[in-house]
Amino acid sequence: MFGSGEEFQTSQGASAVSLIDAVFRWCKALKGEDTIESALAAIAKGVGAEAMTLSRVRHGSFQAAKCVTYDTLSSASPKPRLTRSFAASILSEFMSIARSGTVWLRSVVEVETDPALDLFHSRRKLQELVVIPLQTDHGFSDFVEFHFLDPLSRNQHALLNMLAETLSEAWRNRSHGVFAACALEDKRQERDFDSVDLLGHENPARLSRAEYRVCLLLSRGLPNKGICEELSISNATLRTHLRNVYAKTSTDGMPDLLYLLLKGPRQRPQGDLRRIA
Fold first, then answer.
1. CATH code for 16-190?
2. Is the domain defined by 209-275 classed in CATH 1.10.10.10?
């Protein structure tokens, strides 16, 4: 699978031997004999990635329908952990036609900047994102993505090229329901805003002033057009704010966000929004 038996050292000292173990765990996980989280952890260690995501994205959407994440960062760290997929930000219009088992680098692909991705990488001091398409079927595409602290070394690039087709082939032969069950459990564990007031004075999601105002108006029942008029912003600006809010709150889209906003206290700040947040 990996050619000769010599080790390909990455900047973290990972070798072809560790990747063989990672592929073994991946195949076991996709048969329901191990956890997907442990497989992602083994793969991340093998290629020297800081964080990984396994996701399913609906074509035409920037939000993953299902997502499982692995992050080396401790949950106690003040820095943001990876909680969502950015595959659509990299693949963009190529999402539905990208060949399975190929390697896409953020530093190489020319796409429109995703503010949420820029924010996440800036806060974590990450320098590269790699996306590997696994399968496309019935209007959805499945991806695995890797986030790196440094630009890829030649050996890391070689390891990812060797891994890509193997990961994709195993994914296409996975047991039914493995991903759905794992994604549901991962989402329950990752989202920690269900028990707090998203618009409380503690600002648990660390929303910017503009993002807070958008959420406040959503909680009052205003539609997108009304929010744009109230804040004197364009639709494009509103979409940017919403994408950032989705990323910070680990929500999959407007219905999920509205659930968090509307379950909070009924008494919200009123009056001139320029004095709020």
1. 3.30.450.40
2. yes
